[in-house]
Amino acid sequence: MKSKEATVIGSAGIVQTQHVELFTDGSCLPLDCGASLAPVRVAYETYGQLNETASNAILICHALSGNAHAAGRNHPDERKPGWWDDYIGPGKPYDTNRFFVICSNNLGGCDGTTGPSSINPKTGKPFGLSFPMITIGDMVRLQKALMDHLGIKQLLAVAGGSMGGMHAMQWVLDFPDAVRASIIIASTPRLSAQNIAFNAVARQAIMVDPNFNNGDYYEAEKPIHGLALARMMAHITYLSEKGLHDKFGRRLQDRKELSYGFENDFAVESYLHYQGSTFVHQFDANTYIYITKAMDYFDPFPDPETTGKRLKPVTAKILVMSFDTDWRFDTSRSKELVKILNWHRKNVTFEQFSSPYGHDAFLLDAPLFKQSLASFLQRLHQEITLHGEGNGKA
Hints:
single chain; alpha/beta; eight-stranded mixed β-sheet; two-stranded antiparallel sheet; 15% strand
């Protein structure tokens, strides 16, 4: 029976981004490249209340350009709410009447978590390209340290789309006893050669910018032209051909006739320039090249022997979801993951949804997708309630 609270759909309200410094007690965050970091600052937000047994916590993992601000508003006049506000809040799939939801900015990020733009304590200057190479595993290791800091021994679920889905997969492999369920959305067990090629071109666009200065640009002009180009190209891959056609077609922008020049004749050109020009004010070029490289490296199942060893201790329920017009990480990539999990007799469920919005569909208001998410999460909540692990408020 649904609680009265769960039927009321509302906002997460005014939310403050919190910060914590981890690895300050002489320990370091070990990285897959062999280096280590300390201290490491983490930006995160929380929504809802952690119950007495800390059994209702859900970690939300963001995509490449996201941050810790997943829901609500940081101040009353903020123009837009957090990036997953449609999904997190009272009565929404990640129902904050029931769940304690956490979202942290990734290691290597530029929104409050230690990354290339952070000050290197050894030099007093921004790391730039002296920041060590990082992987998805390193990012998850830092997320685990944050959960330990918050007193959460086992997450009810880890969920994420795109790169966030890689995090959700890495969690069940690296910390199988620390997560009950993993929700992997519009993601992939490894990047294809085409995906890696897109990332390589994006990095080159940044690194050939005259202002890149080998990553040391924080006290001078920034490589905004290269970063804008990288974003414009990537943004095309986040949309579907149908979505672009329906939205723009061959419509002209602020003109009635072709210019017969190299101006922005078409509305889609103007749209992409807008996406690129706004992105450079929100994101750091070095973070972009580090995180795309981390995505390139992600490959948890490189061969049958490794796959078997990594999956043997996994007991989590795994929900894999995809969208039919996503060509960045198309449905075949999700099915590849499901096939691997099925071969190893894991508890996996797969759902594909129809949407005209391509890879970005998981960020938008999609009723059937939302309903499936909510049902899966409600079942998880019923399990902890039936086993006496909840707070008894639902």
